[in-house]
Amino acid sequence: MTPRETLENWQRAGRKVVHEADAKDLLQRIGVPVPQRDPAHGRCVAKLCHDDYPHKSDHGLVRLGLSPDEAKQAAADMAERFAGGTALIEEMEEGSVAEWIIGCKRDDTFGPIVLAGPGGILVELIDGAEIRLAPATPQSAEAMVRSGPGARLLGGLRGAEPADKDALADLISRISVFFSENADLISEIEINPVMVRADGKGLVAADALIVLSPEADEQENFT
Amino acid sequence: MAEPNTNQMAAGRPTVAEALDGLFNPRTIAVVGASRTKGKLGQAVMALLKSNGYSGKIIPVNPSGGEIEGLAAVRSLEEIDSPIDVVVLATPVGVALGALETCTRLDVKVVVGVTSGFSEAGEEGHENEERLRRIMQDAPFRLVGPNCEGVVRPASDLQLTFSPMFNDLHPGPVAMISQSGALAGLMALRLGERGVGINAIVSSGNETDLTAAGLLDYLGNDPQTRVVLCYVEELRDGRRFAEAAQRLTKAGKHVVAVKGGRSRAGSRAVQSHTGAMAGDDRVISAVFRETGVIRARESVAAVDAVTALAAGRRPAGNRVGIISVTGGLGVEMTDLAESAGFEVPVLDETTQTALSRYVPFYGSVTNPVDLTGVVLANPTYVGRCLEAIAADPGVDIAIAIITFVPDQQFIEGMAEAYDSTDKPILIVWTGSARSNASGEALRERAVPVYDSPARAASGLAALAATTGEVT
Fold first, then answer.
1. Residues B194-218: tens digit of each pLDDT
2. Residues in A touching B272 (Cβ below 8 Å)
3. Within a 10 A sphere around the Cβ of B361, how many other Cβ atoms?
4. Last residue of some domain: B309, B337, B360?
5. Does the domain at residues A96-217 carry the CATH identifier 3.30.460.30?
6. What is the pTM of this model?
7. Which of A134, B240, B263, B319 has its CA 20 to 30 A from that of A1?
8. How far is B144 from chain A (nearest CA, A)?
């Protein structure tokens, strides 16, 4: 099944918000690095993914820093409380130097656009996202990681290691192309945070969300 | 997303370019609603067409026939058996829709709908709007408006409008597209006062057919156009507008835009941070920046920006040299320039030596240069000082600030200084209206002249944007 067919199936099934576990499955297929699932060793994250609860931490559906066994137990507990959810156990990303947000949406005036800026909790703190038309060319994505207040953060503040800007620019461009090609099916796509490692070491998508468009016949009533 | 496809149209329908070629150099114009009665739109349109010297054929259309503005009127469009480049609709909405229907059976290139009473009229206009859209679906012509103030093309002596705000413009590098006719009038008048020439003005009104994006593409491609000034409230095909703007700015032209009003939507539920962070206004600013469009916050600031750009001189960098006949205005200009990211650097020694021949001991030859009122004693001094500062290798943009002017020679001297360099020069002339000198020498060169440092700063900011990187 192509990623597009997956999106069509989801839409046909009436899904509006596609939860993290499914969104990551899809993103992995288009070349987005995601954390290793169900690791045997190391520190883990346990989450319960559910279309109705996209903001997981608000509902206590994220547990950090667990052993693999603790993670399994935590996931089972959460699944009991929220029926219909999908448990997700992943390796915890601890080598990142910056957290970023990459998002795409359809703007009423200009159509598909892509946004990138300081992510994670910084989203609430810094109004520093760069916005461009999607799909963003590689040069345009490059400019996005070199502009605005975020550029200094990626460059390494006060002796911090510089982040892998090339990998980030590549991901921005890749997501924006995927979104633009499927903008009739997806109304928003967001990876937040992207854990960006030190220069040359790549990155990983720690959380993701896909918001589907209503089906064409529904759309007519929608506007 | 499905873009409105304006290229897919009825057989025989002219392309945007064909229609606008006909609109701007028409051989025949028919005015529906032409009238002898003062106060009627059709009377004003006829009078302005005639008084501005349009030399093509004008056919007044009025059901009672007779003679209007010395021309024989036909009773209906159907009596015209030759091709008509432009039909102007200047009647109440019911008659206008009837005439528009008639046009579908005639050889017409473009219709300019001055008439109001469509979508802008809410509930009451709804039925008219529906009928308009039905007619336009298969119409073999293109439509400007409706609910617009018309079209102006000084090079063709064409003033197809009821508004006298567009009188006395001369041909030049600025094209204007405005969804508001009144704002187009205000901006045209101000540009005209400064001697900035106009290539074309299109008041695009409701944009039922021809949109700002199509007009931008056409007017920007015109070799006569250097700057396009846009006032838009709703960008109907924003993507095409952005793409057209990017093509223009990459070709070295400039687009200055004022985006009025709030966008639609806004209250839609937001599922993601992206939705909340990429609000309508932020996206507009970002896309404008990406495509090289200079966004002005309101119409007068836009005129100030266009004035600086229309002169056609690009700065090599951001270093500003300021001379002023008074300390205070020099300080204010310096503050504004610096807060906008410009440098006001130390002047070259040669420049300082040249200036010290004119500046008394209580003045200052450091940037900003305080010439003091003493320079007013000799009408040529300010011009020479301006020439000196513009020649400084460390100055990219020169600004001269003057208050009242004792005589004409003073202004001629500044015009000569303008001619002596290729660098951008801005003049702040606070007392122009009360001076004993005409600004004609500056106007005929379209030297950017502002009445305050703040307005000059808008021009300065526009010049800075021309050096910015457009990806």
1. 999 999 999 999 999 999 999 999 9
2. 54, 103, 105, 188, 190, 192, 209, 211
3. 7
4. B309
5. no
6. 0.91
7. A134
8. 21
